[in-house]
Design a protein that fits this description.
By secondary structure, the protein is α/β, with parallel strands linked by helices. It is built from 9 helices and 7 strands, in the order βαβαβαβαβαβαααβα. It has a 7-stranded parallel sheet, with helices on both faces. The structure holds NADP nicotinamide-adenine-dinucleotide phosphate. NADP nicotinamide-adenine-dinucleotide phosphate binds next to α1 and α6.
Length: 271
């Protein structure tokens, strides 16, 4: 893995799902970790795991949709570690209550999803950048989704929010690059987590099987697949990468029609 010794990394949504994979990967690479999320108990569990890997960890219960709590998160990270070398904006989701066809979408359900996945994700990045400008650089990583670059029946506003954060990622990279700040996004394909198993495309076993068929590597992602990519982007080895959205999907962004055609050709070639 990459060398993150001496770096301090903030991870939002660190107590569950993909956030656990990100926090674990950062710690395995030697980073000290600031674990943020609304619920305190899962953050404590994660902090114990991270500390067992030989690094320091603090937990900061934070609702990222409250600007005073974002400020408090920054303050706690600086008080403990004196700097923020990387900040991963992982907190996000589309609650089951907000999912449905566009024709029935209400203003409230639109705002719930777009505010969390676009607006407040941006303001977290802005808070991180203000620290990084003062200290002379850093790495911001926004967790987008494969949904950000394709149609999303039943979660249209979620895909639009993720497309928005990918666009802002590129603009942040341009505006803050001369401060030594790199800003990138990671767009995961399907990773079984509490969120993804209760909403949308993995909420029934038959759907999971169909999803796996559409992945050339023939498996769903793991939280550690996404964590490893985040550790890379936080590391000095990624020092000339900024403004990018990296797709981590087992190849499943290849259009399904083309994939079906290619599978047929492959079967024919096998004889
Ligand atoms: N799983 C997938 O297949 C998949 C695919 C593509 C992209 N993603 C993206 O990956 C990220 C993680 O998703 P996941 O599947 O791991 O979801 P998850 O299991 O539901 O975890 C979401 C995390 O975000 C935190 N969170 C939610 N709202 C928050 C808020 N207002 N303030 C602070 N923390 C908040 C949750 O913790 P608390 O509830 O304790 O706050 C939790 O730790 C999301 O950005 C999601 O859009 C996931």
């Amino acid at each position: 893995m990459f060398n993150l010794k001496g770096k301090a990394v903030v991870v939002t949504g660190a107590g569950r799902g993909i956030g656990t994979g990100i926090s674990r990967a950062m710690a395995k690479c030697g980073a000290d970790v600031v674990l943020a999320g609304r619920s305190a108990a899962p953050l404590e569990v994660m902090a114990n795991e991270v500390r067992s890997l030989g690094v320091r960890a603090i937990t900061v219960p934070t609702d990222i949709t409250d600007p005073t709590q974002i400020d408090a998160l920054v303050g706690a990270a600086l008080a403990e570690f004196g700097r923020i070398d990387a900040w991963v904006n992982n907190a996000g989701s589309a609650n089951a209550a907000d999912v449905g066809p566009l024709i029935d979408l209400t203003s409230d359900r639109f705002d719930n999803v777009v505010d969390l996945n676009l607006k407040w994700t941006f303001f977290c990045a802005q808070a991180a950048a203000r620290v990084m400008i003062a200290q002379g650089g850093g790495s911001i990583i926004n967790i987008s989704s494969r949904s950000g670059s394709q149609p999303n029946p039943m979660t249209g506003q979620y895909g639009a929010a993720k497309a928005g954060i990918e666009n802002l990622t590129a603009t942040m990279a341009v505006e803050w690059g001369h401060h030594g700040i790199r800003v990138n996004a990671i767009a995961p394909g399907l990773v079984p987590t509490e969120d993804s198993l209760t909403t949308g495309s993995m909420s029934k076993p038959s759907r999971v099987a169909r999803q796996i068929e559409s992945v050339p590597l023939r498996r769903l992602g793991t939280v550690d697949d996404i964590g490893a990519a985040c550790a890379f982007l936080a590391s000095d080895e990624a020092g000339w990468i900024t403004g990018e959205t990296i797709q981590i999907t087992g190849g499943s962004r290849i259009p399904v029609g083309y994939l079906t055609y290619m599978h047929k050709i492959t079967e024919e070639l096998k004889g």
